[in-house]
Amino acid sequence: MDDESSEDSISQIDFSAAIPDPEDIEIRDSNRLDSARLNTSDSLNEKKTIASTKSFRYPSFKVSTKSLRVVLSEKKRQFNIYSAGAVAVHSPGKVVTPLHGSIRIQKKTSQIVSIENKGIKKDIFLPCTLISVNKYNYIDYDEKSYRGTFAFYNGPNNALLLVNILDIEEYLRGVIPLELGKRGKGDLEALKAQAVAARTYAYKRIEERRSFLFDLYSTVKDQVYGGANVEYREADIAVKMTKDIILTSGDSIVYAYYHSTCGGRTASIEDVWPQKSPKPYLISVSDLDPDGESYCALSKYYTWRELWPGDQFKNILLKNIGNNCEYDKSQMVSGDFKFRIVDKNGCGRVKTLLVEGKGWKRKIIADKTRYVLRRGSSDHPILRSSNFNIVSFTKKEVAISGNGYGHGVGMCQMGAIGRARAGQKFDEILKSYYTGVQLSICTLEH
Ligand SMILES: [Zn+2]
Fold first, then answer.
1. How far is the CA of 286 from the centre of ligand 1 (A)?
2. Residue 199 domain flag
Protein backbone atom coordinates (compact mmCIF):
# COMPACT_ATOMS: atom_id res chain seq x y z
CA MET A 1 0.00 0.00 0.00
CA ASP A 2 1.48 3.28 -0.98
CA ASP A 3 0.47 4.90 2.20
CA GLU A 4 1.22 8.54 1.99
CA SER A 5 -0.66 8.23 4.46
CA SER A 6 -4.14 8.76 5.71
CA GLU A 7 -5.87 6.43 8.10
CA ASP A 8 -7.42 5.50 4.85
CA SER A 9 -4.73 3.54 3.16
CA ILE A 10 -3.09 0.82 5.06
CA SER A 11 -0.24 -0.88 3.33
CA GLN A 12 -0.79 -1.07 -0.34
CA ILE A 13 2.65 -2.01 -1.52
CA ASP A 14 3.03 -4.47 1.24
CA PHE A 15 -0.03 -6.47 0.46
CA SER A 16 1.12 -7.11 -3.05
CA ALA A 17 4.56 -7.82 -1.68
CA ALA A 18 3.15 -10.82 0.09
CA ILE A 19 1.61 -12.26 -3.01
CA PRO A 20 2.57 -15.80 -3.89
CA ASP A 21 6.08 -16.95 -3.86
CA PRO A 22 5.17 -20.50 -2.95
CA GLU A 23 8.09 -22.07 -4.75
CA ASP A 24 10.43 -20.01 -2.65
CA ILE A 25 9.05 -21.42 0.54
CA GLU A 26 9.70 -24.92 1.59
CA ILE A 27 6.59 -26.61 2.91
CA ARG A 28 8.46 -28.16 5.79
CA ASP A 29 5.61 -29.31 7.85
CA SER A 30 2.72 -30.02 5.57
CA ASN A 31 1.69 -33.14 7.45
CA ARG A 32 1.61 -31.53 10.84
CA LEU A 33 -2.06 -30.75 10.68
CA ASP A 34 -4.27 -33.63 11.60
CA SER A 35 -5.64 -34.75 8.25
CA ALA A 36 -8.95 -35.70 9.86
CA ARG A 37 -9.49 -32.03 10.52
CA LEU A 38 -9.80 -31.38 6.84
CA ASN A 39 -11.58 -34.58 6.01
CA THR A 40 -14.94 -33.84 4.50
CA SER A 41 -16.74 -36.60 6.39
CA ASP A 42 -15.67 -35.11 9.69
CA SER A 43 -15.87 -31.51 8.72
CA LEU A 44 -19.51 -31.06 9.71
CA ASN A 45 -18.90 -32.19 13.26
CA GLU A 46 -15.74 -30.15 13.30
CA LYS A 47 -17.65 -27.08 12.18
CA LYS A 48 -20.30 -27.59 14.83
CA THR A 49 -17.63 -27.85 17.46
CA ILE A 50 -15.90 -24.76 16.14
CA ALA A 51 -19.12 -22.78 16.02
CA SER A 52 -20.14 -23.66 19.55
CA THR A 53 -16.61 -23.18 20.87
CA LYS A 54 -16.31 -19.83 19.15
CA SER A 55 -19.47 -18.36 20.53
CA PHE A 56 -18.56 -19.69 23.92
CA ARG A 57 -14.98 -18.47 23.87
CA TYR A 58 -15.27 -15.09 22.22
CA PRO A 59 -17.48 -12.18 23.19
CA SER A 60 -19.96 -10.87 20.69
CA PHE A 61 -19.36 -7.63 18.78
CA LYS A 62 -22.39 -5.94 17.21
CA VAL A 63 -22.13 -5.01 13.54
CA SER A 64 -24.72 -3.28 11.37
CA THR A 65 -24.19 -5.49 8.32
CA LYS A 66 -22.32 -8.55 7.12
CA SER A 67 -22.51 -7.46 3.53
CA LEU A 68 -19.70 -5.65 1.79
CA ARG A 69 -19.53 -3.23 -1.14
CA VAL A 70 -16.30 -3.52 -3.10
CA VAL A 71 -15.62 -1.28 -6.07
CA LEU A 72 -14.48 -3.10 -9.21
CA SER A 73 -14.27 -0.13 -11.56
CA GLU A 74 -14.68 3.62 -11.38
CA LYS A 75 -13.27 4.79 -14.69
CA LYS A 76 -15.26 3.11 -17.46
CA ARG A 77 -18.43 4.18 -19.22
CA GLN A 78 -19.23 0.83 -20.76
CA PHE A 79 -19.22 -2.68 -19.34
CA ASN A 80 -19.47 -6.06 -21.04
CA ILE A 81 -20.53 -8.64 -18.52
CA TYR A 82 -21.70 -12.22 -18.73
CA SER A 83 -23.98 -14.31 -16.59
CA ALA A 84 -24.77 -17.95 -17.27
CA GLY A 85 -27.70 -17.84 -14.85
CA ALA A 86 -30.56 -15.33 -14.88
CA VAL A 87 -30.00 -11.94 -13.27
CA ALA A 88 -32.85 -9.66 -12.23
CA VAL A 89 -32.29 -6.01 -13.12
CA HIS A 90 -33.46 -3.50 -10.52
CA SER A 91 -33.72 0.14 -11.50
CA PRO A 92 -35.86 3.01 -10.16
CA GLY A 93 -39.23 2.97 -11.85
CA LYS A 94 -38.45 0.10 -14.20
CA VAL A 95 -38.79 -3.67 -14.07
CA VAL A 96 -36.67 -5.53 -16.57
CA THR A 97 -37.28 -9.20 -17.32
CA PRO A 98 -34.40 -11.31 -15.93
CA LEU A 99 -31.50 -11.51 -18.36
CA HIS A 100 -28.72 -13.99 -18.97
CA GLY A 101 -25.80 -14.37 -21.32
CA SER A 102 -23.85 -11.35 -22.54
CA ILE A 103 -25.05 -8.04 -21.16
CA ARG A 104 -23.71 -4.65 -22.17
CA ILE A 105 -24.23 -1.63 -19.96
CA GLN A 106 -23.40 1.81 -21.26
CA LYS A 107 -23.69 5.18 -19.59
CA LYS A 108 -25.82 7.68 -21.46
CA THR A 109 -26.31 10.48 -18.95
CA SER A 110 -25.64 10.97 -15.26
CA GLN A 111 -29.00 9.33 -14.60
CA ILE A 112 -29.49 6.86 -17.43
CA VAL A 113 -27.71 3.77 -18.78
CA SER A 114 -28.61 1.61 -21.69
CA ILE A 115 -28.71 -2.11 -21.07
CA GLU A 116 -28.37 -4.48 -24.02
CA ASN A 117 -28.99 -8.21 -24.06
CA LYS A 118 -29.64 -10.53 -27.00
CA GLY A 119 -29.98 -7.60 -29.40
CA ILE A 120 -32.55 -5.74 -27.28
CA LYS A 121 -31.59 -2.38 -25.81
CA LYS A 122 -33.39 -0.54 -23.02
CA ASP A 123 -32.71 2.70 -21.23
CA ILE A 124 -32.99 2.53 -17.47
CA PHE A 125 -32.32 4.84 -14.56
CA LEU A 126 -29.33 4.69 -12.26
CA PRO A 127 -28.57 3.19 -9.89
CA CYS A 128 -29.19 -0.18 -11.45
CA THR A 129 -28.51 -3.47 -9.77
CA LEU A 130 -28.05 -6.95 -11.23
CA ILE A 131 -29.08 -9.65 -8.79
CA SER A 132 -28.57 -13.31 -9.59
CA VAL A 133 -31.80 -15.28 -9.32
CA ASN A 134 -29.83 -18.30 -8.12
CA LYS A 135 -27.44 -17.37 -5.34
CA TYR A 136 -24.79 -19.78 -6.64
CA ASN A 137 -24.57 -17.91 -9.94
CA TYR A 138 -21.47 -15.92 -10.90
CA ILE A 139 -21.36 -12.68 -12.83
CA ASP A 140 -18.32 -12.40 -15.10
CA TYR A 141 -16.57 -9.16 -15.76
CA ASP A 142 -13.07 -8.44 -17.08
CA GLU A 143 -12.19 -12.16 -17.23
CA LYS A 144 -13.06 -12.74 -13.59
CA SER A 145 -16.10 -14.36 -11.99
CA TYR A 146 -17.79 -12.72 -9.04
CA ARG A 147 -20.19 -13.92 -6.40
CA GLY A 148 -22.98 -11.61 -5.27
CA THR A 149 -24.59 -8.61 -6.91
CA PHE A 150 -23.38 -5.94 -9.34
CA ALA A 151 -24.52 -2.37 -8.72
CA PHE A 152 -23.90 0.51 -11.13
CA TYR A 153 -23.89 4.12 -9.93
CA ASN A 154 -23.24 7.44 -11.56
CA GLY A 155 -19.50 7.91 -11.07
CA PRO A 156 -17.08 10.81 -11.31
CA ASN A 157 -15.64 12.04 -14.63
CA ASN A 158 -18.53 10.81 -16.67
CA ALA A 159 -17.84 7.21 -15.69
CA LEU A 160 -19.89 4.48 -14.08
CA LEU A 161 -19.05 3.10 -10.69
CA LEU A 162 -19.30 -0.70 -10.59
CA VAL A 163 -19.68 -2.12 -7.09
CA ASN A 164 -19.78 -5.82 -6.21
CA ILE A 165 -22.02 -6.38 -3.19
CA LEU A 166 -21.54 -9.67 -1.39
CA ASP A 167 -21.33 -11.43 1.92
CA ILE A 168 -18.10 -10.57 3.71
CA GLU A 169 -17.20 -14.24 4.19
CA GLU A 170 -17.51 -14.83 0.44
CA TYR A 171 -15.43 -11.74 -0.22
CA LEU A 172 -12.63 -13.10 1.99
CA ARG A 173 -12.42 -16.24 -0.13
CA GLY A 174 -11.28 -13.97 -2.97
CA VAL A 175 -8.85 -12.03 -0.78
CA ILE A 176 -6.85 -14.53 1.30
CA PRO A 177 -5.36 -16.32 -1.76
CA LEU A 178 -4.01 -13.04 -3.10
CA GLU A 179 -2.78 -11.76 0.24
CA LEU A 180 -1.00 -14.90 1.41
CA GLY A 181 -0.53 -16.87 -1.81
CA LYS A 182 -1.12 -20.54 -2.42
CA ARG A 183 -0.47 -22.33 0.85
CA GLY A 184 -0.74 -25.93 1.97
CA LYS A 185 -2.37 -27.51 5.00
CA GLY A 186 0.74 -26.92 7.11
CA ASP A 187 0.17 -23.19 6.80
CA LEU A 188 -3.50 -23.33 7.81
CA GLU A 189 -3.07 -21.39 11.06
CA ALA A 190 -1.37 -18.57 9.12
CA LEU A 191 -4.24 -18.57 6.60
CA LYS A 192 -6.67 -18.36 9.52
CA ALA A 193 -4.74 -15.46 11.06
CA GLN A 194 -4.78 -13.73 7.68
CA ALA A 195 -8.53 -14.34 7.36
CA VAL A 196 -9.15 -12.69 10.73
CA ALA A 197 -6.89 -9.74 9.89
CA ALA A 198 -8.52 -9.23 6.47
CA ARG A 199 -12.01 -9.58 7.96
CA THR A 200 -11.16 -7.07 10.67
CA TYR A 201 -9.81 -4.69 8.03
CA ALA A 202 -13.00 -5.02 6.00
CA TYR A 203 -15.32 -4.42 8.97
CA LYS A 204 -13.30 -1.36 9.92
CA ARG A 205 -13.76 0.00 6.40
CA ILE A 206 -17.51 -0.68 6.55
CA GLU A 207 -17.65 1.32 9.75
CA GLU A 208 -15.63 4.21 8.32
CA ARG A 209 -17.27 4.44 4.90
CA ARG A 210 -20.92 4.22 5.82
CA SER A 211 -21.72 7.38 3.88
CA PHE A 212 -19.83 6.22 0.75
CA LEU A 213 -21.21 4.18 -2.12
CA PHE A 214 -18.65 1.48 -1.42
CA ASP A 215 -16.56 0.17 1.47
CA LEU A 216 -13.38 -1.07 -0.18
CA TYR A 217 -11.28 -0.93 -3.28
CA SER A 218 -10.45 -4.29 -4.86
CA THR A 219 -6.82 -3.32 -5.29
CA VAL A 220 -3.74 -2.63 -3.21
CA LYS A 221 -5.45 0.58 -2.08
CA ASP A 222 -7.28 -1.70 0.35
CA GLN A 223 -7.05 -5.47 0.01
CA VAL A 224 -6.50 -7.23 -3.29
CA TYR A 225 -9.69 -9.05 -4.24
CA GLY A 226 -9.73 -11.45 -7.19
CA GLY A 227 -13.33 -12.69 -7.13
CA ALA A 228 -14.13 -16.38 -7.29
CA ASN A 229 -11.36 -17.39 -9.71
CA VAL A 230 -8.62 -17.24 -7.10
CA GLU A 231 -10.40 -19.30 -4.44
CA TYR A 232 -8.77 -22.53 -3.26
CA ARG A 233 -9.53 -25.16 -0.66
CA GLU A 234 -7.16 -24.33 2.20
CA ALA A 235 -7.96 -20.62 2.06
CA ASP A 236 -11.70 -21.43 2.03
CA ILE A 237 -11.25 -23.66 5.07
CA ALA A 238 -9.38 -20.88 6.89
CA VAL A 239 -12.24 -18.46 6.21
CA LYS A 240 -14.83 -20.98 7.37
CA MET A 241 -12.96 -21.96 10.51
CA THR A 242 -12.70 -18.33 11.59
CA LYS A 243 -16.18 -17.32 10.46
CA ASP A 244 -17.21 -13.94 11.93
CA ILE A 245 -14.08 -13.61 14.10
CA ILE A 246 -12.51 -10.15 14.21
CA LEU A 247 -10.01 -8.32 16.40
CA THR A 248 -11.25 -5.71 18.82
CA SER A 249 -9.66 -3.43 21.37
CA GLY A 250 -11.88 -1.94 24.04
CA ASP A 251 -15.17 -1.36 22.25
CA SER A 252 -13.62 -0.76 18.81
CA ILE A 253 -12.65 -2.78 15.79
CA VAL A 254 -8.89 -2.48 15.42
CA TYR A 255 -6.92 -1.16 12.47
CA ALA A 256 -5.57 -4.53 11.39
CA TYR A 257 -2.56 -3.33 9.41
CA TYR A 258 -0.36 -6.05 8.01
CA HIS A 259 2.66 -6.33 5.78
CA SER A 260 4.80 -8.94 4.05
CA THR A 261 7.99 -9.27 6.10
CA CYS A 262 9.05 -7.33 9.19
CA GLY A 263 12.68 -8.41 9.08
CA GLY A 264 12.81 -9.44 12.74
CA ARG A 265 10.91 -6.68 14.50
CA THR A 266 7.63 -4.94 13.69
CA ALA A 267 7.17 -1.17 13.91
CA SER A 268 5.01 1.07 16.07
CA ILE A 269 2.45 2.87 13.95
CA GLU A 270 3.55 6.39 14.90
CA ASP A 271 7.16 5.59 13.97
CA VAL A 272 6.13 4.66 10.45
CA TRP A 273 3.43 7.26 9.93
CA PRO A 274 4.13 10.10 12.39
CA GLN A 275 0.86 11.82 11.50
CA LYS A 276 -1.16 8.90 12.84
CA SER A 277 -2.07 8.51 16.44
CA PRO A 278 -0.46 5.72 18.47
CA LYS A 279 -2.50 2.59 19.03
CA PRO A 280 -1.85 0.31 22.01
CA TYR A 281 -2.14 -2.76 19.80
CA LEU A 282 0.18 -1.45 17.06
CA ILE A 283 3.43 -1.26 18.96
CA SER A 284 6.80 -2.63 17.91
CA VAL A 285 7.26 -6.30 18.84
CA SER A 286 10.03 -8.82 18.33
CA ASP A 287 9.43 -11.48 15.68
CA LEU A 288 12.15 -13.80 16.96
CA ASP A 289 11.65 -17.39 18.05
CA PRO A 290 13.15 -18.74 21.31
CA ASP A 291 16.39 -19.54 19.46
CA GLY A 292 16.72 -15.94 18.30
CA GLU A 293 15.81 -16.76 14.69
CA SER A 294 13.24 -14.57 13.01
CA TYR A 295 9.91 -16.21 12.21
CA CYS A 296 9.94 -14.37 8.88
CA ALA A 297 13.47 -15.45 7.93
CA LEU A 298 11.86 -17.74 5.33
CA SER A 299 10.88 -14.68 3.29
CA LYS A 300 13.07 -14.00 0.30
CA TYR A 301 12.95 -10.37 1.34
CA TYR A 302 14.18 -10.99 4.86
CA THR A 303 17.39 -9.31 3.75
CA TRP A 304 17.92 -7.54 0.47
CA ARG A 305 20.33 -5.30 -1.33
CA GLU A 306 19.56 -2.57 -3.84
CA LEU A 307 22.06 -1.20 -6.31
CA TRP A 308 21.84 1.90 -8.52
CA PRO A 309 24.26 3.42 -11.02
CA GLY A 310 25.21 6.81 -9.53
CA ASP A 311 23.43 8.88 -12.20
CA GLN A 312 20.25 6.90 -11.96
CA PHE A 313 20.22 7.16 -8.18
CA LYS A 314 20.61 10.91 -8.34
CA ASN A 315 17.80 11.26 -10.87
CA ILE A 316 15.43 9.11 -8.85
CA LEU A 317 16.27 10.78 -5.55
CA LEU A 318 16.05 14.34 -6.81
CA LYS A 319 12.91 13.67 -8.79
CA ASN A 320 11.16 12.32 -5.71
CA ILE A 321 12.32 14.90 -3.21
CA GLY A 322 11.97 17.65 -5.80
CA ASN A 323 8.19 17.56 -5.75
CA ASN A 324 6.78 20.47 -3.78
CA CYS A 325 10.31 21.45 -2.88
CA GLU A 326 11.08 24.96 -1.80
CA TYR A 327 14.52 24.83 -3.41
CA ASP A 328 15.50 25.63 -6.94
CA LYS A 329 15.42 22.29 -8.72
CA SER A 330 18.05 23.25 -11.31
CA GLN A 331 20.43 24.05 -8.49
CA MET A 332 19.75 20.66 -6.96
CA VAL A 333 20.32 18.79 -10.19
CA SER A 334 23.51 20.58 -11.24
CA GLY A 335 25.55 20.26 -8.06
CA ASP A 336 26.88 17.43 -5.95
CA PHE A 337 24.87 16.17 -3.03
CA LYS A 338 25.24 14.01 0.05
CA PHE A 339 22.79 11.83 1.84
CA ARG A 340 22.94 10.10 5.18
CA ILE A 341 20.82 8.44 7.83
CA VAL A 342 20.53 10.87 10.74
CA ASP A 343 18.74 8.60 13.20
CA LYS A 344 16.69 5.44 13.51
CA ASN A 345 13.67 4.37 15.52
CA GLY A 346 13.95 1.75 18.25
CA CYS A 347 12.73 -0.91 15.82
CA GLY A 348 15.70 -0.26 13.52
CA ARG A 349 13.83 1.61 10.79
CA VAL A 350 15.13 4.91 9.52
CA LYS A 351 13.61 7.89 11.32
CA THR A 352 15.34 10.72 9.46
CA LEU A 353 17.22 10.73 6.19
CA LEU A 354 19.09 13.92 5.29
CA VAL A 355 19.83 14.87 1.69
CA GLU A 356 21.82 18.04 1.12
CA GLY A 357 23.58 19.89 -1.65
CA LYS A 358 25.07 23.33 -2.08
CA GLY A 359 22.53 25.78 -0.67
CA TRP A 360 19.78 23.24 0.01
CA LYS A 361 18.92 20.39 2.29
CA ARG A 362 15.95 18.17 2.81
CA LYS A 363 14.92 15.84 5.61
CA ILE A 364 12.87 12.80 4.74
CA ILE A 365 11.04 11.12 7.55
CA ALA A 366 10.20 7.50 8.35
CA ASP A 367 8.22 5.53 5.75
CA LYS A 368 8.47 8.45 3.27
CA THR A 369 12.11 7.45 2.75
CA ARG A 370 10.82 4.46 0.80
CA TYR A 371 9.00 6.75 -1.61
CA VAL A 372 12.10 8.83 -2.23
CA LEU A 373 14.69 6.05 -2.50
CA ARG A 374 12.79 4.28 -5.23
CA ARG A 375 14.29 1.19 -6.77
CA GLY A 376 16.17 1.14 -10.05
CA SER A 377 13.92 -1.27 -11.96
CA SER A 378 11.88 0.14 -14.80
CA ASP A 379 8.73 1.10 -12.91
CA HIS A 380 10.67 2.42 -9.91
CA PRO A 381 8.73 0.76 -7.11
CA ILE A 382 9.33 2.11 -3.63
CA LEU A 383 12.12 0.76 -1.45
CA ARG A 384 11.17 -2.55 0.17
CA SER A 385 11.38 -1.23 3.70
CA SER A 386 12.65 1.67 5.76
CA ASN A 387 14.86 -0.73 7.72
CA PHE A 388 18.04 -0.11 5.72
CA ASN A 389 21.67 0.94 5.78
CA ILE A 390 23.72 2.76 3.18
CA VAL A 391 26.41 0.34 2.07
CA SER A 392 28.20 2.56 -0.44
CA PHE A 393 27.66 5.98 -1.93
CA THR A 394 29.96 7.11 -4.70
CA LYS A 395 29.40 9.02 -7.92
CA LYS A 396 29.56 5.73 -9.75
CA GLU A 397 27.34 3.57 -7.62
CA VAL A 398 24.99 3.56 -4.66
CA ALA A 399 24.20 0.42 -2.65
CA ILE A 400 21.70 0.00 0.16
CA SER A 401 21.06 -3.14 2.17
CA GLY A 402 17.92 -3.72 4.17
CA ASN A 403 15.60 -6.06 6.00
CA GLY A 404 12.01 -6.93 5.34
CA TYR A 405 9.28 -5.87 2.95
CA GLY A 406 6.53 -3.46 3.81
CA HIS A 407 5.77 -0.79 6.36
CA GLY A 408 6.29 -3.14 9.32
CA VAL A 409 3.10 -2.28 11.22
CA GLY A 410 0.86 -5.01 12.62
CA MET A 411 1.00 -8.61 11.45
CA CYS A 412 4.06 -9.85 9.59
CA GLN A 413 2.57 -12.22 7.01
CA MET A 414 5.70 -14.28 6.43
CA GLY A 415 6.23 -14.36 10.20
CA ALA A 416 2.69 -15.70 10.55
CA ILE A 417 3.64 -18.53 8.19
CA GLY A 418 6.82 -19.18 10.19
CA ARG A 419 4.82 -19.25 13.42
CA ALA A 420 2.19 -21.60 11.96
CA ARG A 421 4.97 -23.98 10.92
CA ALA A 422 6.39 -23.75 14.43
CA GLY A 423 3.05 -24.95 15.81
CA GLN A 424 1.37 -21.70 16.86
CA LYS A 425 -2.39 -21.38 16.53
CA PHE A 426 -4.02 -18.50 14.69
CA ASP A 427 -5.09 -16.63 17.83
CA GLU A 428 -1.60 -16.91 19.26
CA ILE A 429 -0.16 -15.60 15.99
CA LEU A 430 -2.56 -12.64 15.95
CA LYS A 431 -1.93 -11.76 19.59
CA SER A 432 1.82 -11.83 18.94
CA TYR A 433 1.50 -9.02 16.42
CA TYR A 434 -1.49 -7.07 17.75
CA THR A 435 -0.68 -6.43 21.38
CA GLY A 436 -3.54 -6.89 23.85
CA VAL A 437 -6.29 -7.39 21.28
CA GLN A 438 -9.42 -9.40 21.88
CA LEU A 439 -10.92 -11.88 19.45
CA SER A 440 -14.65 -11.23 19.07
CA ILE A 441 -17.53 -12.69 17.10
CA CYS A 442 -19.48 -10.37 14.82
CA THR A 443 -23.21 -10.54 15.36
CA LEU A 444 -25.85 -8.48 13.62
CA GLU A 445 -27.44 -5.65 15.58
CA HIS A 446 -30.96 -6.63 14.61
ZN1 LIG B 1 8.49 -10.79 10.71
1. 8
2. yes
